[in-house]
Structures are given as C-alpha cells and as structure tokens.
Write a structure and sequence with these properties.
By secondary structure, the chain is mainly α. Helix content is about 80%, strand content about 0%. The chain has 6 helices and no strands.
C-alpha cells in the first residue's frame, strides 16, 4: 500500500490522540504505538488485501467481481426466508395465546403472555454492519469515485 495514502490516517489519529489524551508524553507514546502498528506485518497484509479486493471488484469477469454481490443476495434471501416466517409464526402464536387467555370464560386474567423474542438484536447488528459498509460506497459515489 502506498505510504502517501496512509499519511492522512496517521495525521488524523495523531490529532485524535492529542485531543483525547491530555498528557503530552502519553499522547506521543500512543502515536508511536499506532505508527508501529502501521508498520507491522499484519497491518501491511490487511492493506494489501484491501488493495487486492478493490482490483478484484473492478474486474469485468463475473466470476471475479460478481461473487461479492452474489454472497450478499444469498445472505439477504436466507435472512428473509428464516427470519420473516419465524417472526410471523411467533407473533401469530402470541396473539392466539393472548386470545385464549382472554376468551376463556370465568378465568381471572393476570397479564398477557410475554411477547416472544424475535432475535431483532441479531438482525439489527447484521443490518448495521451491512449498511455501514454500504455507506462507504455511497460516500465514494458522492465524491465521484468510479
């Protein structure tokens, strides 16, 4: 990865360290540790993988550039086929049990049964991750990056 592309990242990180860490010595130590991470082998490998992903995504070959969208559509389809029926079935069961609770003559109603956990937290985490990545592409489009 080109060091010129990494320089703005290190400048921004340095400014953040200066604002967050009031002690100048501690801030400089944090900057030095961050710079060491940037020079580390794992970081360099990750940056090379990102560059390779960008080249692969621009390929005219459907087998090189089309697998990422295919994985996305398969994930959306699987999520839709597993989550939506589960949510509908659990909600219908909850409504039926609430109906039975109130429809039984002569029974004392304490409270509605608890609404079932639909796993919304998992879906929202997945959605936030996908939309977070998608937002980066929107920023690129706004800036005019092809």
């Amino acid at each position: 990865m080109n060091p010129l592309l990494l320089a703005p990242i290190f400048d921004i990180a340095g400014k953040i360290f200066d604002r967050v860490i009031p002690d100048k010595v501690a801030a400089q130590k944090a900057k030095d540790e961050f710079a060491a991470i940037g020079q580390g082998q794992d970081f360099q490998l990750a940056m090379q993988q990102i560059a390779l992903n960008a080249v692969e995504a621009q390929s005219p070959s459907l087998f090189k550039s089309g697998w990422r969208p295919a994985v996305g559509w398969i994930g959306v389809t699987a999520l839709g086929l597993s989550y939506v029926p589960k949510a509908l079935a659990l909600t219908a069961f909850w409504c039926y049990s609430a109906y039975l609770t109130y429809a039984s003559p002569g029974t004392v109603v304490a409270a509605l049964p608890a609404f079932p956990d639909l796993g919304v937290g998992d879906v929202l985490a997945l959605l936030a991750a996908i939309l977070g990545v998608g937002t980066l592409r929107t920023v690129e489009k706004v800036k005019g990056v092809a």
